[in-house]
Amino acid sequence: DAGVTQSPTHLIKTRGQQVTLRCSPISGHKSVSWYQQVLGQGPQFIFQYYEKEERGRGNFPDRFSARQFPNYSSELNVNALLLGDSALYLCASSLVDTYEQYFGPGTRLTVT
Amino acid sequence: KQEVTQIPAALSVPEGENLVLNCSFTDSAIYNLQWFRQDPGKGLTSLLLIQSSQREQTSGRLNASLDKSSGRSTLYIAASQPGDSATYLCAVNGGSQGNLIFGKGTKLSVKP
Predict the structure, then answer these.
(1) Are the Cβ atoms of B99 and A103 closer than 8 angstroms?
(2) Interface mutation vs chain A, best among B100, B101, B104, most A CBs within 10 Å
(3) Which of A45, B25, B48, B59 is the Cys-Cys partner for B99 at CB 3.0 to 4.6 Å?
(4) Which pLDDT does position B94 carry in this prediction?
(5) Using a CB-CB distance cutoff of 8 angstroms, which residues of chain A are in contact with residue B97?
(6) Residue by residue, what is the 3-state secondary structure of chain B?
(7) A87 SS3 class
(8) Does residue B15 surpass a pLDDT of 90?
(9) Across residues B81-94, what is the average pLDDT?
(10) Residue B46 to chain A, least CA–CA distance (Å)
(11) Between chains, do A98 and B93 touch, taking CB under 8 Å as contact?
C-alpha cells in the first residue's frame, strides 16, 4: 500500500507570495495533520483535520490555513510568506486522531 | 503546557554498542507516545508506538519503555549498526487535539 504522499517535494518562493502544499493520506485514514519543522528542531503542530473538520490548531498566525477534501486529502495554504516560513512541512495521517501517525516525506519550502 | 525533552542532544558510539536514548515529558496525561527516526532532510519513520496503558514495546533490536507516572520513556537500541545513524525523535499524543508534541531529537552517529 502507498504511504502518505506530499507534493511538491521542493518549493522556492519569494517573500509576500502565497503557497499551497498538498497531502494524500494512507488509504482508509481519515485524519490528517500538518507540522512545520525548522532546522535543528522537532516538528511543530499546525493543524489537524478529521472527517473534513478542523479538530486542532497550533500556535501559528492566520496566514496559515488548511482544508480537507471528501477523499480525505488535504491542502495547507500559507499567505504573505516570510523568510521565517522556510522549513520542512510534514503531513501525517492516522485512522483516527489519537492513533499512530504516519508521516510523508515532507515539502521543503524555501522563502527568499 | 506539555513539554518534551530529549537527552542527549547528540551521541556517537562505536558499532556493536548497546545504547539508550531518553525522553521526558511534563504532563503524564497522554494517550500514547511514539518514537520516530528521521534521516537528514527526510520525513519521519515511525519506530514504536506505546499506548498509555502499556509499559514497553519491542521491534527487532529496538525496545521502548514508558513510565507515565514519572514522565519518562527510553529507547534501547541493541547491537548498534552504522545504518542506525539518524536523528531519533520522541513525541507524545495528549489526545485533546490529537496532535503530537515533539522533543528536539537525539542525533545518533554509529561509527564503523
Answers:
(1) no
(2) B100
(3) A45
(4) 77
(5) 45, 48, 55-57, 97
(6) CCCEEEECCEEEEECCCCEEEEEEECCCCCCEEEEEEECCCCCEEEEEEEECCCCEEEECCEEEEEECCCCEEEEEECCCCHHHCEEEEEEEECCCCCCEEECCCEEEEEEC
(7) strand
(8) yes
(9) 95
(10) 7
(11) yes
Integer Cα distance of A74 and A83 in angstroms: 24
Strand order of the β-sheet with B19-25 is B4-7, B19-25, B72-77, B62-67, B56-59
- Please report how many Cα atoms fall inside a 13 Å half-sphere around the Cα of residue B100, on the Cβ side: 33
**Contacts of range A44-50, beta carbons closer than 8 Å, 24 or more positions apart:** A44/B102, A45/B97, A45/B99, A45/B100, A45/B101, A46/A76, A47/A76, A48/A97, A48/B97, A48/B98, A48/B99, A49/A74, A50/A96, A50/A97, A50/B98
> For every one of its 112 residues, what pLDDT tens digit does chain A have, with 9 covering 90 and above?
689 999 999 999 999 999 999 999 999 999 999 999 999 899 999 999 998 999 889 999 999 999 999 999 999 999 999 999 999 999 999 987 667 899 999 999 999 9
Nearest to B43 among A50, A56, A104 (CB): A104
Half-sphere exposure of A53 (CA within 13 A, CB side): 6
Which tens digit of pLDDT belongs to each residue from B20-54?
999 999 999 898 999 999 999 899 999 999 999 99
